[in-house]
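Protein modeling request. Please complete all fields; requests missing the sequence field cannot be processed.
Requester role: graduate student
Desired output: 3D structure, token encoding
Chains: 1
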Amino acid sequence: MLLKKENGWKNEKLNKNDIFEFCQGYKNSLDLGKTEREYVKFGLELAKQNGFVCASTKKKLKSGDKVFYVNRDKNLVLVVIGKEEITKGINFVVSHIDSPRIDLKQNPLYEELELGYMKTHYYGGIKKYQWASIPLSLHGVVILENGEKKDIIIGEKEDDPVFTIPDLLPHLAAKYQGERQTAEVIKGEELQIIVGSIPTTIKNADIKELVKYHILEELNTTYGMIEEDFISAEFQLVPAFKAKDIGLDRSLIGGYGQDDRVCGYTSLRAILDLKEVPEKTAVCFLADKEETGSHGSTGLQSNYLEYFTSDLISKVKGDYSDLDLRKTLWNSNALSSDVNAAMDPIFKGVHEAQNAAKLNYGIVVTKFTGARGKSGTNDADAEYVWSIRNLLNTHGITWQIGELGKVDEGGGGTVAMLLAEVGIKTIDVGPALLAMHSPFEVSSKLDVYETYRTYKVFFENMI
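Delivered output (463 residues):
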């Protein structure tokens, strides 16, 4: 009669070795894919190793075929064509692979007090002070003046230099920072990285900023860059440290980008590990730009979902109509696979305990996200919530419900409402994290594994 949930580690049917082994691969993915471009590259390599081929090479598709789509190196879509007529619906698992970070401005480099600095603009919702005085690595791509494309990563190898945003020492910070609100302990324009301090040895009266010029010399020698090339570049600053086990029992994972690459990896592995052809066509969609509102041609507010779905329909059926697309979407199911907030015993007051998620209690089913008054949310209907509840219970998945804080405390959004707007039955389902949006987020290994199991049974069994 009573709703009873308990710590998943008490379930004797779960295999601890399987969980820990799976999470080794997950940690590796966090280290290899710290930007959306890198994660697409990582996922694409795995897909090809598992028999997926580019959809553009196929004129027709049949049951059991495995194809991929790549959108501007920032979206990856993996598809397994199912047995059922495609217009009867697709099972989508949609995650985002962008994470909060710090981007370089288009004209970033300057010199002052004979120190070289670069100006930045933060991406997504961060506590800016958390990004000061930690080692940062530089990841990105630049298109040189001659059109050549260069991928650049500095700070990940053991002997690489790193970068940092110097903070003000506490001895002098009492008045300058002490009276600031938390959001402005470090202000946006103060998020600047130090990049050098040695002046150039070139003797030229026209060169006034000798340290800046020396930095440009280093970039030119190593990568062929000139200063104007920053304008046609995407450079991102991310934590330079690797994902690590946390705790004496190694039950937790700490690392950058777990929101939402934890769902990216688990959904990727779920579709790669399908052994049988599913009844419904299965789609793993790794999206971009969720942390800034899902705008742009690689965000879910673009029509890319309709674009590749239309292509699938035309190749499966041999013809295409707009009505076929609408039928397919309206008959489809989706898991908006995104994280929720785990209740922290230090900060319990922001949660309503009866409806809050906990670490080690399994994957979190979130009926609605959004802010106060359920604004900006999907709010899944009771029938679809039951179908997910039944699926999880039938297959012995450890799961829980969750909301993102107290009613008037804040809230947040996911891509769920964007999927629902085109008619797809959608609910948010993903693990809970501590320290979300920080440079070092915390997840439970058990929850990560149960997330993988959820997505796999969804692909295999959701009708």
